[in-house]
Every structure is written in structure tokens, then in C-alpha cells.
Automatic annotation (TrEMBL):
Family from the record: Belongs to the NadC/ModD family.
Source organism per UniProt: Brevundimonas terrae
Function: Involved in the catabolism of quinolinic acid (QA).
Residue span(s) of domain Quinolinate phosphoribosyl transferase N-terminal: 27-112
Root EC class: transferase
Name of the protein described by the UniProt record: nicotinate-nucleotide diphosphorylase (carboxylating)
Length: 284
């Protein structure tokens, strides 16, 4: 899981965001109003409770605009934060830090929002053995950061991209000619470290999938009764595999899904419907 991201991964994203914001002439407001040699000290403060994620993005944004700035990330990614907490304190060129402000806040607020939302899902299934996973429904260009934020919130990462695991979905099955045929082809193709998962959209496909012994079976948009039946069938078969539930998952439904006994619940809303955590930058 992407619990720790190297700066090498984060910096290109931050550079792109800064370039988008600075445009052709840079921060003309700061140039017009702030003396070139002015300095400032400021704090990124949480304006609501949540979970920390994205501190490295703030540090990189500030240092790119002022390499001599002092950046003190006070809260580690994954830690709980409360309204009023100082998350990061910065000191340096006023022009540089003001130019970095919006990019830093965008990254920090979004990553904290994802981590906070993930934590809510994880807490909702507490007491079951189900784990909360993300999906590939991420913001283009931000996948590594967003999956890191999910891990900070206590979730687990699904496959990162199309190249690191085989996931046979309904369209693959349709073109290939059936669940069993698709799984057999995938297992013959996969190297020993690559897992094979197949999606089934009803109990009529489940037994065929179990017989081929994939690593994971995804139950796509199953109702709770059928989901519990699927769990029982897998246990009765004696086949060791992971059952993943997907589709129709939200904070109102996730506890009931977990109670059926599935192993993993994948939730696209962790990243595609996130509400940014309210964080502000205040000069001190």
C-alpha cells in the first residue's frame, strides 16, 4: 500500500499545479503589494476535525517557491486532527509562500478529505473482518497521492493501474465467452506474483468462478441476501479465495455489506466523491 510516498513521486504533481496557478507572469498580486524582501510566518490550521494526509505536498510546494523557507510539518500523515490544530508552520519569503498557498491548500485539503472519509468507512465496519479498499476512480494525475490518503485513513489499496493485477470484468467475460474461459486464460497468462480477480454479477456465475479458483471474486452489485449466500457457497467449497463486494456502497450500506462476511469492500466514493477538509493558512 502507498503508506509512504517518496518526494520523487509527489514533486511532479506539485510542480504541475504550481505552473497552472502561476501562469505566464507569476503572482501579480503579491508582486504589486508585497516588497520583494518581505518575509512572513504562517500556519496551516485545521478548521474541522479529520485525518491528516498530504503534509509532504505542502512542504514541497513551499520549498519550490522559496528553497530557503523553513517548513515544519507538525502532524504525521494518518494522525487524527482537531479543529484549530496547527498542521504545518512555514516561514520565508512572503511572495514565495503566498504563491504556494493555494496549491498547498488544494493538496492538503483534498488528501485530508480522502483520509477522513476513508476513516469513517473503516470505523463503520469495525467489529467485522471486512477491509475497506479504494478503486481506480481517481483524479487523473493524482492517483498516487489519493491512494496514499486512503492508506492514511486506514483503508487498503486496490490495484494501482491496469498493469499490476488481472481484473476480469463483465465486458471481458462477454468478449471472452464466459467466466470460466476468461479465468483459465488469465491464470495461464499471469506470472506467479500477479493475482487474478474475476467479477460476477449474479449467483449463476459464482459456482463457475469458484471452480476455476481465482485469487479473488468480486460480487458486483449483489443484494445482501445473495451476498451472504455467496459467502456461504465459497466456505462450503473449501476453495481459499478472497470475496470482494463492490457497487452501491455508501456509509449507510457498508455495515450491512460487511456483516455478510465478505473480506473486502471496494468503495469508489473514497476518491471520486470526496469533500475537501476545511484548512486555512493564517499569517502569524
Amino acid at each position: 500500500m502507498t503508506r509512504t510516498l517518496p518526494d520523487l513521486v509527489i514533486e511532479p504533481v506539485v510542480r504541475m499545479a504550481l505552473a497552472e496557478d502561476l501562469g505566464r507572469c507569476g503572482d501579480v498580486t503579491a508582486q504589486a503589494c508585497i516588497p520583494e524582501d518581505a518575509r512572513m510566518k504562517a500556519q496551516f490550521r485545521a478548521r474541522q476535525d479529520g485525518v491528516m494526509a498530504g503534509g509532504a505536498g505542502v512542504r514541497i510546494a513551499c520549498l519550490l517557491m522559496d528553497p530557503k523557507a523553513r517548513v515544519d510539518v507538525r502532524v504525521s500523515d494518518g494522525a487524527d486532527i482537531a479543529k484549530g490544530d496547527v498542521l504545518v508552520e512555514v516561514e520565508g519569503s512572503a511572495r514565495g509562500l503566498l504563491a504556494a498557498e493555494r496549491t498547498a491548500l488544494n493538496i492538503l485539503g483534498r488528501m485530508c478529505g480522502i483520509a477522513t472519509q476513508t476513516r469513517a468507512y473503516v470505523q463503520a465496519v469495525a467489529g467485522t473482518h471486512a477491509r475497506i479498499a479504494d478503486t481506480r476512480k481517481t483524479t487523473p494525475g493524482l492517483r498516487a497521492l489519493e491512494k496514499h490518503a486512503v492508506a492514511c485513513g486506514g483503508g487498503i489499496n486496490h490495484r494501482f493501474g491496469l498493469d499490476d493485477a488481472i481484473l476480469i470484468k463483465d465486458n471481458h467475460v462477454a468478449v471472452c465467452g464466459g467466466v470460466g474461459k476468461a479465468v483459465r486464460a488469465a491464470k495461464a497468462f499471469a506470472p506467479h506474483l500477479m493475482k487474478v480477480e474475476v467479477e460476477v454479477d449474479g449467483l449463476d456465475q459464482l459456482d463457475e468462478a469458484i471452480a476455476e479458483q481465482p485469487d479473488v471474486i468480486m460480487l458486483d452489485n449483489f443484494n445482501l441476501t445473495d451476498m451472504a449466500t455467496a459467502v456461504a457457497r465459497v466456505k462450503a467449497s473449501g476453495v481459499k479465495l478472497v470475496l470482494e463486494a463492490s457497487g452501491g456502497v455508501n456509509l449507510d450500506t457498508v455495515a450491512g455489506i460487511a456483516a455478510t462476511g465478505v473480506d473486502v469492500i471496494s468503495v469508489g466514493a473514497l476518491t471520486h466523491s470526496v469533500i475537501q477538509l476545511d484548512i486555512g493558512l493564517d499569517a502569524v
